[in-house]
Amino acid sequence: MSAVLEISGLNVQRGAKRVLTDLSMRLPAGRTVALLGPNGAGKSSLVLALAGVLPVASGRIMLDGQDLANRPCEAVRRAGVAAVLEGHQVLTGMNVEENLRVAGFALPPAELQAQLEEAYGIFPELRELRGRLAGTLSGGQQQMVAVAQALMARPRFILADELSLGLAPVIVRRLTDVLKALADKGCGILLIEQFTHVALRLADHVYVMNRGRVHFEGSPAEVQANPQVLHEAYLAGDFQLGRA
Ligand SMILES: Nc1ncnc2c1ncn2[C@@H]1O[C@H](COP(=O)(O)OP(=O)(O)OP(=O)(O)O)[C@@H](O)[C@H]1O
Ligand SMILES: [Mg+2]
């Protein structure tokens, strides 16, 4: 049986505010799951909780019979769950290769080298740019570095938060093609995407959130056939009410 990242009954607080409420979601290996919802819905908070950055008040994040909730970030990465966080989280004062080596620091040296080759195989552009300071790269190139950093963890699950934000369509296509190839090779992908049509094109399954809860789940075809699902969620969002 293939692996599933199984989230159940997750509750997460940020300060005094409950940002995830009783949230359950399944992310199977080899599948792309789109997570849609308005600004402030809690999408990034979910990624941060899954990645071990935000504490989990209650609920479980099960993988291979282990609960990853409240495990340190590095333990979550070692278990095979890698996040590409919102914004290009690259080390701007280091060059491209240093960024990738830092991301792969937990690997034994021979495996680190092999993984570096794999990342450069997926992004040949980065091999050309290996000596360039990450801070001098374009937004699209930085996002490639961010995805390649996730690949250095040899992930079985990738959580991609707003990969396409502010990027040209040609780069968005490049990045989504990479995610699709990874899913075809058995990686589970959680795709948070402002461009609903991009998410629906790639996804096998869709969750729509608002105010920290799952509002709807179903196939991309169901979402397309019932556009009110998205309208309701987006109209009920904090953003629309001016409370983001
Ligand atoms: N650093 C923070 N400290 C405290 N609360 C935060 C912080 N960042 C976000 N929040 C709150 O957490 C809630 C969920 O925000 P989150 O960023 O997870 O939503 P999102 O769905 O990713 O939105 P967006 O589409 O704007 O990225 C919001 O109410 C937001 O105000
Ligand atoms: Mg977000």
CATH top level class name of the domain at 4-87 and 155-235: Alpha Beta
Shape: globular
Strand count: 10
Q: Can you say what the CATH homologous superfamily of the domain at 4-87 and 155-235 is?
A: P-loop containing nucleotide triphosphate hydrolases
User: Tell me about the biggest sheet?
Assistant: 6 strands, mixed
- Determine the strand fraction and express it as a percent band: 25-35%
Assembly category: single chain
The name of the CATH topology of the domain at 4-87 and 155-235 is Rossmann fold
Q: In words, what does this structure look like?
A:
With 244 residues, the protein is an alpha/beta fold. The chain has a domain at 4-87 and 155-235: Rossmann fold. The chain is built from ten helices and ten strands. It has a six-stranded mixed β-sheet, with helices on both faces. A four-stranded antiparallel β-sheet has the order 2-1-4-5, with helices on one face. Strand 9 (205-210) and strand 10 form a beta hairpin. Helix 3 (96-103) runs parallel beside helix 6 (139-151). The longest helix is centred in the last third of the chain and has 16 residues, at 169-184. The chain is globular. The structure holds adenosine-5'-triphosphate and magnesium ion. Adenosine-5'-triphosphate (ATP) binds at residues 14-15, 17, 19, 37, 39-45, 238.
